[in-house]
Amino acid sequence: MTKLLIGQIVAFGETAQDLSHDTRGAIAIGDDGRILFRGPLSLLPRAFDLTPREDYGEQILMAGFIDAHIHFPQNRILAAAAVDLLDWLTRYTFPEEALYADPTYAAAAATTFLNTLYRYGTTSALAFCSSHKACAEALFEAAAKRNMALITGKTLMDRNAIPAVHDTVESGALDTLALHKAFHGKGRLRHAVTPRFAVTSTDAQLQSAGELLRQCKGALMQTHLSESAGEIAFVKQLFPNDQDYTAVYERFGLVTDHSLFAHGIHLSPRELSALNEAGSIVMHCPTSNTFLGSGLMPFQGRTKLALATDIGGGTSYSMLQTMGEAYKVQMLTGRKLKAAELFFMSTLGNARALRIDQETGSIALGKFADIIVLNPTATPVLAARHKLSNSIEDVLFALALLGDDRSIAATYVAGEKVY
Ligand code: GUN
Ligand code: ZN
Predict the structure, then answer these.
(1) CA nearest ligand 1 atom 11, residue
(2) Buried (b) or exposed (e) across 342-381, using 16+ Cβ within 10 A?
């Protein structure tokens, strides 16, 4: 049924500078979950006079958040203290991901996981699964039920973990091709070829991943790159003939304009040029980078950036908190971000990085109504701070630095209220 959402509206055009703000705005959503109208309530066409409406008063309607990098099977291992990335993977992550071989367990976890995303205002994500095909099937199926734009794939990893999460070159390729056929382009689902990182794949599997990326038409490629000192040293030892970490992925045809690399903290000028020339994306994961002690990643030098929680290395599902931490990390590396830049990154910027901007990422006519309602006075601290805000930029800044799931009043995916 056609419906109307009414409230303050914050919407981006093509850039972070192009922010429009209606203090009393309306969004009309059609039967198909797509946006029919957005503008001041005073200009709402008479045709919507009798349309059922939800009035959110002074709360803010905006595009739902998009998380560019999150691990579905790590939803129980947040805040697991470790010496560094490799220690954390060994002690907590691999054993936890082993549970996702069980389709029943994975299906139950997928429902919980998506409900958690909605509670935090995240309406789309590029996610890692475990290495088990059943894990990816469970997440795809749960997202399809909600008509959600979700991208995932089974993780390719044939060495240096534990047997319960190892695949083989052959099984990894067969499962990847089967998932592409079953889910890519089905409704709003998309597939990503997903080698975990160079440490956990043999040369033969990385070679296969490059071939899979070429065979799986339209698929993205997601992996990890240059996150921690121990990881980088291990890659050097495993691939002594490659000039640097990025060169390993280049050699196997994995550095492309459909490629997304999580972290990318310690990249050399050569590596940065290689990524930028290819049009690859670097996903900034500030809460994970500080929690695991991986490093402070400057935005400088990276032309295509996305923003992500990296749950469970990251410590919050909240893209608001992730924006706040990104702000602090950039302050430490010499750049002062504006709230509009952070909110743009978390919505249309990430939609572009994930190549789903034709259908989501902004409140624009014809796109799916993936919309959240933000309460700028959700807590006593926010309410007190809100009294001093004198511009929409300032309201958004306070939300990015002080907000969390309590600031999310409602979440809509393709026009349906899911939270
Ligand atoms: N590198 C390889 N796997 C992972 C993972 O699961 N999390 C993080 N943060 N880095 C990784
Ligand atoms: Zn990750």
Answers:
(1) 224
(2) bbbbbbbbbbbbbbbbebbbbbbeebbbbbbbbbbbbeee
Domain 3-63+362-417, CATH class in plain words = mainly beta
Nearest ligand to the C-alpha of residue 97? 1
Cα(323)–Cα(302) distance, integer angstroms = 17
β-bridge partners, 124: 66
Give the tens place of pLDDT for each residue, 175-193: 999 999 999 999 999 999 9
CB 81 within 8 A of CB 91: no
Contact 43, 36 (CB under 8 A): no
Q: CATH 2.30.40.10 in the chain: give the residue spans.
A: 3-63+362-417
310 in contact with ligand 1, CB cutoff 6 A: yes
CATH topology of domain 65-337: TIM Barrel (3.20.20)
Q: Is 180 helix (H, G, I), strand (E, B) or coil?
A: helix
Q: Ligand 1 pocket test: which of 90, 129, 224, 285 has the largest number of ligand atoms within 8 Å of its C-beta?
A: 224
**Contact between 262 and 220 (Cβ < 8 Å):** no
3-state secondary structure of 311: coil
User: 10 - beta bridge partners?
Assistant: 21
Q: What is the pLDDT of residues 252-265, one digit of tens each?
A: 999 999 999 999 99
The pLDDT of residue 1 is above 90: no
Find out whether the beta carbon of 167 lies less than 6 Å from any atom of ligand 1: no
Ligand 2 centroid to Cα of residue 384, in Å, is 36
Comma-separated ranges of CATH 3.20.20.140 domains in the chain: 65-337
Handedness of CA 31, 36, 38, 41 (dihedral sign): negative
Ligand closest in space to the Cα of 127: 2
Nearest CA to ligand 1 atom 8: 313
Cα of 224 from ligand 1 centre, angstroms: 7
**Position 120 confidence tier, pLDDT thresholds 50, 70, 90:** very high
Q: Yes or no: say if 263 and 283 are a contact pair by the CB < 8 Å rule.
A: yes
pTM: 0.98
